[in-house]
Design a protein that fits this description.
There is one protein chain. This protein has 111 residues and is mainly α. The chain has two helices and no strands. The protein is elongated.
């Protein structure tokens, strides 16, 4: 049976499809970041240490200050997401990409 309710169609088009696109972008961007982090040496590059503050000016720009432990944990969370999507021969990843607007498999330039 087809979905013909205009509000359901609008919800799908304005919310669900964009979410699928964002998830597809997250997958490729996250993969690129994890690959770069590992290529730079992982925790030898940025130590998994709460006392190692990333001096990026955040404290003067009203942004949260992050540290090496934050970087490591974000990387771990992204790795868990990648693992989940790639499980069972990329089952969830393939399904997700089939409903996106064909997200390119390369990260955005300049990221």
């Amino acid at each position: 049976m087809a979905v013909t309710d205009p509000t359901a169609i609008a919800f799908s088009d304005s919310k669900v499809r964009p979410l699928a696109n964002l998830l597809g972008q997250l997958y490729y961007y996250g993969q690129a970041i994890i690959d770069e982090y590992n290529a730079r040496g992982g925790t030898a590059f940025i130590a998994n240490d709460a006392n190692e503050v990333i001096e990026d000016g955040a404290n003067t720009e009203a942004r949260p200050v992050i540290n090496g432990q934050d970087v490591t944990r974000i990387g771990q969370i992204m790795t868990e997401i990648l693992t989940m999507l790639e499980a069972n021969d990329d089952e969830k990843l393939n399904w997700l990409l089939n409903v996106t607007n064909r997200v390119p498999n390369t990260p955005h330039s300049g990221l």
